[in-house]
Amino acid sequence: MGKSAPSMPAVPSASQTAAAQGQANTSSAASQAVMNFVNQNTPYGATKYDQTGSYTNPQGDTVPTFTQTTSLSPMGQAILGGEQNVSATLIPTAENLAQQTSAATTKPLDFNTPFSSYLSQGPQQLDQKTTDALYHQQKSFLDPQWQDQDQKLQDQLSRQGIAVGSDAYNNAERQLASSRTQAYQSAMDSATGAGSAAASNLFGLAQAGQNQNIQQQQLAATQPLSLLSALYGATPATPTQPIATPGQTAIAPTDVVGAQAAANNAAMAQYQAQVSAQNANTGALGGIAGAGIGAAGMYFF
């Protein structure tokens, strides 16, 4: 009586394999997290990890949850408290400066300064005005002098008996007029040269004054922002934190899928070997039976 045929290996459930792999991954991740939660003690303070609960994911896997607690040394805590007090004290000042900054930076520059009138005329107009002013100043000194000389000439000619309208009288008047013209022309030339230099100097001073006025406006606009930046820059630096990241330990999750595939391949190989062996046995028995039938026929023949 022959042996029964070998049974086909059962096909593993894909959902069960995936669930097992997910559970292995979760377990590895939780173990890795626990191994990396290293309590620390430093000169600046301490850091510790405490399990405070657990979490169950939608797949039903439960993992522990932890709380990290950091504490500073007494000196570090005093420094941190002092920093926070300083910052809290400076907050009203910073808010006030922020409002001033908003108002100052949006205010347009005013170019209508006391120097604008000089700059709007230009050097040429200033030159003429300055020349006229200097000439009239010198003329105010020359007029009385030449009036006095004219009177003295009239007195002199009268004492000499030189009649008005005579050649001698007219010659004396022409000489006096020529000298007077030369004196006033010299005053005009002097006023022109001095006026040009004074006008150029005045225009340069007006430009410098205008630039200084604009710079003062710009300074007034940026001063609150500069003070605000300096205020933030003056905030004490945060003390060294007592947390140092430890070396991370990595744990590879169990390869459930690979292990299941290897087991399935081994079962299939065993099944195929059994099928091959059974086929070989069946063939051998058939050969023996055929040989026996042939021999019997020869005997009866």
Would you give an account of this structure?
This protein has helices spanning 14-36, 74-105, 116-159, 167-233, 256-300, and strands spanning 40-42, 45-56, 62-72. A three-stranded antiparallel sheet has the order 1-2-3. 70% of the residues lie in helices and 9% in strands. The protein has a domain at 118-233. Residues 295-301 have low confidence and may be disordered. The protein is rod-shaped. A hairpin with a 5-residue loop joins strand 2 (45-56) and strand 3.
Ordered list of secondary-structure elements with their pairings:
Elements: H1 14-36, E1 40-42, E2 45-56, E3 62-72, H2 74-105, H3 116-159, H4 167-233, H5 256-300
Antiparallel strand pairs: 1-2, 2-3
| Percent range for β-strand residues | 5-15%
Coarse shape: rod-shaped
- Number of distinct helices: 5
Name the quaternary structure.
Answer: single chain
Give the biggest beta sheet.
3 strands, antiparallel
Average of pLDDT: 75
Structural class: mainly alpha
Which residue ranges are poorly predicted, with pLDDT under 50 across at least 5 consecutive positions?
295-301
Fraction of residues in H or I helices: over 70%
Measured on Cα atoms, how large is the radius of gyration? 58 Å
**Strand/helix succession:** HEEEHHHH
Q: In angstroms, what separates the terminal alpha carbons?
A: 31 Å
Order the strands across the largest sheet as they lie in space: 1-2-3
Secondary structure: number of strands: 3
